[in-house]
Amino acid sequence: MIDVYPFAGYPVAVYGLDEAGLFTARALFAGEAELSAWDENPANREMTEKAGITPRDFSSDDLQDFTTLVVSAHAWKNDPAARALATRAKEQNIEVICDVELLARTQREAAYVGIAGAHGKSLTAALVTYLLQVTGREAEMAGLSGTSALNTDPLGMEGAYVVEMTPFRIAHTVSITFDVAVLLNLENTKNGEAAMPLFHRQTTPRAAVICMDDKPSQAIYRKLSKAREQRIYPFSIKQDLQGGVFVRESTLYDSFDKGDPIAVMDLSSIPHFAGPHAQANVAAAFATVRAIGVQPHAAMAAINSFPGLVDHRETIEKIDGVLYINDAAASSLECAASSFSGYENIHWIAGGQGEVNLTTKEPLKNVSERIKGAYLFGEAGLALSEYMKEYLSTVHFSSLDDAFHKASQAALKGGAPAVVIYAPGYAGKDTTGGDSFRDLVNAVAGERDDED
């Protein structure tokens, strides 16, 4: 935990006491801030009391009693009262900040890498952190989705924090000038406008790493290139580039030195980097560490040894010849299809509770021959079943447990080496699916690959 000592003796309000928000509150409490913490959810308040902090409802108070309002990302997204409170605070000239801003004010000497985009932030941040650590640099990942940026260790001048920057965090972080700012992708121009502060105050030798595979990101690349204030490195999985990094037919190329591109490695040989989404993340991470000064051969070796990230194509076990993969982070059909690119004989578990926003079948159509069966569950599973029945064999179940057992049985009977993959295929609110799948796999009887 980072001890937030700069706020000692100052009256600070924290709104949102979910797991990450509570961690932030605990860090402020440890730093001896005059803390007032509140959440409308009684269960969150109970957890706060167990952590030794007495919740106090300040939401109707005169906010001028505080110097700072800290809002958790979860509250900002899910509780309308959080935004209303932030509006009141700003009207009274009270600063409204987030966990990353607290980290920045506490760890001023460290370097910062900020990673933003519509998707792929967690895997890219994990890759960058791993590549820096393996190549001899001190680095910590801060603020992985659902966690507080203060849930890390203090770093000195030689250290670097790799921070996952959501639009909320970008808007509520004012003290950081990122040493490397990474833009992975954008869905629309509005998101592009929200991403621009990521590059605020950057001047050479600071660097921007920007995707060239969507029009809003391209517009930001052109804008920054015209200003010529920082070093800029493009990356792409759709086109060859000079002065950056690109992927062509699953091979990663380095063209940083603007000469002939150099083939670095074949990503298709690594199952969890076989699909386009993962390959874009690898290209971004490679460009980021190259901008920091890591040599290509060292980065390549580190990529080859990357163990993966929890809930991102995570290999759980191989039991009786069946490989079990947890890709709980696959929150769209596009992401799920990208996961399947590295495997054959797939028994796919998907679904859950909540609504499904389906846009296109094409990604799954392209990999449908790899899928032996789709085992769907819950309300989302019903929607997915109706959507995919034309080209996939689907069966619906009431629970993940039932879908898992049927998929596991079918994989064992198939003869050829099979893979059971849990990839929800939609953006649900349940964040425990990956843990539940992992528990189910661990309970499977049979011979494991690591057993004598």
Could you say which overall geometry the principal axes of the C-alpha atoms support?
globular
| Helix fraction bin | 25-40%
Mind telling me the C-alpha Rg? 23 Å
**CATH topology label of the largest domain:** UDP-N-acetylmuramoyl-L-alanine:D-glutamate ligase
Strand content: 15-25%
> In terms of per-residue confidence, which ranges show pLDDT below 50 for 5 or more consecutive residues?
none
| Termini gap | 40 Å
* Number of strand elements: 19
User: Which structural category fits the helices and strands?
Assistant: alpha/beta
Give the count of structural domains. 3
Average pLDDT figure: 91
CATH superfamily of the largest domain: Mur-like, catalytic domain
Number of helices: 16
CATH architecture of the largest domain: 3-Layer(aba) Sandwich
CATH class of the largest domain: Alpha Beta
Model description:
The chain has 16 helices and 19 strands. A nine-stranded mixed beta sheet has the order 6-7-5-8-9-10-11-12-13, with helices on both faces. A six-stranded mixed beta sheet has the order 14-15-19-16-17-18. Strands 2-1-3-4 form a four-stranded parallel beta sheet, with helices on both faces. It is an alpha/beta fold. The chain has three domains: 5-97, Rossmann fold, CATH 3.40.50.720; 101-305, Mur-like, catalytic domain (UDP-N-acetylmuramoyl-L-alanine:D-glutamate ligase), CATH 3.40.1190.10; 314-442, Protein-Tyrosine Phosphatase, Chain A (Alpha-Beta Complex). The mean pLDDT is 91.
